Amino acid sequence: MNGKVVILGAGAVGTTVATYLKRHTCHEVTVFSSDTHTAYSQCGIPFVLEGVIHDFPDLIVRPLDAFVDMGIDLHLETTVKRIDANSQKVISDAGIFEYDHLVIATGSLPFVPPIDGKELDGVFTLHTLSDGMKINSSINDASRVLIIGAGGIGTELAGSLAVRGITVTMVEALPQVLPLTIDPDMALLVQQHLNSLGVLVVTGAHVNSINGKQHVRSVSVQGDTVPTGIVPSDVVIVATGLKPLSGIARDAGYKIGITGGIVTDEHLRVSADGGILDNVYAGGECAEVKEFVTCSPFISRLGSAARRMARVIGENIAGQDAVYPPTLSPNVVVVGEVTAGSVGITSHTATLNDISVVCGISEGRTRAGYFPGGSQINAKLIFSNRRLVGAQVVAREGVKERIDALSLAIRMGATVDDLLEWETAYAPSVSMIIDPVTFAADDAKMKMDGLA
Length: 452
Ligand SMILES: Cc1cc2nc3c(=O)[nH]c(=O)nc-3n(C[C@H](O)[C@H](O)[C@H](O)COP(=O)(O)OP(=O)(O)OC[C@H]3O[C@@H](n4cnc5c(N)ncnc54)[C@H](O)[C@@H]3O)c2cc1C
Description:
alpha/beta, FAD/NAD(P)-binding domain, 3 domains, 5-stranded parallel beta sheet, 12 helices, 29% strand, binds flavin-adenine dinucleotide
């Protein structure tokens, strides 16, 4: 099998598709990226800013030479301006390139709200390795950082910078941290941990303006529950969400969904004029897929999901019949020493989708009470019609494993009774004799049966 494959984007999706095709097919593979670097871990950037990882080059997981050695024609700092769908060509800074298969893996860009002063020196977004480097050199001279937005990136960053010894204020418009992934009661545990690290978390508040002449000096914050105030700040990091980079696909006539992402079918093929295109794929943060519980259009903003999509695209271009099923996108956010994980839908998403739910909660320990080093663990299970549709866990250890198991449980259609029959392993140094998740299932069952 040999044809020309052009890939727009050399992030998680683009590089994975390229290497898969080079390993398993004889396709000519050309990859374009506007970025200065490739094959690095965006997910690791907060850990360099914290000081846990020594330096940014440590995040590069595959050197440029490796792509050259594999025969991949990689063009960094090269933006593709247009796709000519009729003649199957892309028009880039480096010239015009023909394709037999096209992969759109352009990711997303940080969304920055129209706040006065957002263009001042010292105001950043965090998306690329270069962003991380710029923030790092700025905070070397800064003592006060204000983060706008308490989603995954903002919250993780707040923890990292606080551990580094910086005075951090985080302002979030909604009434809780991590509003898209966990419920308010679980978010409070994360917020309390941030407070214990010295982070001032201001929820239910807006940033009216970023102030300063050339460089940021302060931020004006107005809140529902806090008085309007001026917060002195040397650096501001805007972490108010992402918008999919789908404009180039829209201009080419490909269908864009209500999320702003490129609509894909279960094979991750795009569509145009009402029909699926057999040779054009989209994956990662620019692609709209389906969420598992609600079947709603959804963009997964996770490296783990991006890698899975890339594999599906690679296999399909290689002639297989691979499917990307509706996603649960299990995720964990590491905030200082605490990890907050979730999978499936939150209570808020359930309400938005008119799904009636019963929640079970529990609080326990990650190790036997007498064993040193354990931590408090809080679990929350969300059921609809007795089936598990969401799960959240907050603790200092053991979060990812439980979220992963519960992800499988949701996908397999587990009921509250299945979870009560779930046998879990025990040793005092790593668990309690009955897992805290079981107690959350117990709590939910009691409520369902009218006993609580
Ligand atoms: C700070 C941070 C922490 C994160 N932590 C985690 C985590 O812990 N766990 C997790 O699962 N996920 C995490 N993520 C998310 C994860 O990194 C992304 O979901 C994933 O990298 C998305 O992959 P992608 O290929 O869709 O996009 P990207 O990796 O962003 O790649 C998109 C590429 O397209 C290029 N591009 C765009 N337009 C064009 C064009 N017109 N022409 C040429 N090139 C173009 C860009 O330059 C870029 O190289 C984190 C992200 C950030 C920023």
